[in-house]
Amino acid sequence: MSYSRLAGALFVTLLAILALAGCGSSDVVATFDGGQVHRAELDKQFKLQRLLIAPQYPDTPQNRLEVLQQYIVMHDILDQKAKQEGITVSDKELADTVAQYRQQLIQYVYGNADALNKKMAELGLQDNDLQALARDDILAQKYFAKHLSVSDEEIQAYYKDHPADYTIAKVAHILVKTKQEAEQVEARILKGESFAQIAKEVSLDPSKDQGGELPEGPLSQWVGPFQDAAMKLPIGQISDPVQTQFGWHILRVDSRRVEPLSQVKDQVKNKVMQMKEQQWFNQAKQDAHITLEDSALKQAAAGGP
């Protein structure tokens, strides 16, 4: 063998050794039944989440742990199950889904294709990374469509048990620091002073500029005590002081209506399906017997920062 060929062979061997070293046990962040995840894989998945969810998605051990668990279940575990059942993804499905990703990212996050492409370059991401993610999403949709369903009885039960989700109200409120201040506000209103004027004068909430009026929406968007008061308070009357983690409120409900099930049936069905998918995910995560090898991830799993 000539010197040049020998040198070339040694160089290739060296590269192989370095590659193996780079994927050694110290680089494994987690193992699970059937496989393991290397740090480079987790880094790539975290960058994808930063691209898709929010560019400012904080790089914390807790967030990385969530991404890791999602990746193991929705990529490795689900891929195995899909293969066993002959579930596949066509080239057209893949291309259409990637195009949808890009369109939504441009519309809602980046504004134009150049900005999106620049961000992908900054993160070291390529189109094949989006394709891999799209493939996982399509497989998940097909698998869940085959194995999970929602009955009319389940839809009716959820609708009945979650009235705040489908009760739409127009509410005004005045927020102050103490119960005593709230009682003083209540007394002033009962004496005939303008609710809106008092809100502009003393309320700590940004809605004070609108006389305390909040945008119409479902009661479920508000915290528990506020939500309960808005559900029970007679239209047009003011509440006694209501305490939340934000302070003390005086409420007035200007309108309140319940959306009939016939109008929100699809919305309720989607919500129940999401719950079933989450239950499936939690069980699959448990069955995978994930073992963390990274100290920061272990701390996050134990409830640390």
TrEMBL record:
Residue ranges occupied by any PpiC domain in the UniProt entry: 170-255
Any one GO molecular function term: peptidyl-prolyl cis-trans isomerase activity
Keywords: Isomerase, Rotamase, Signal
Isomerase among keywords: yes
A Pfam match: SurA_N_2
Signal peptide: 1-21
InterPro entries, per the entry: PPIase_dom_sf, PPIase_PpiC, PrsA_foldase, Trigger_fact/SurA_dom_sf
Superkingdom to which the source organism belongs: Bacteria
Keyword Signal attributed: yes
PANTHER family: PEPTIDYL-PROLYL CIS-TRANS ISOMERASE HP_0175-RELATED, PEPTIDYLPROLYL ISOMERASE
Annotated protein name in UniProt: PpiC-type peptidyl-prolyl cis-trans isomerase
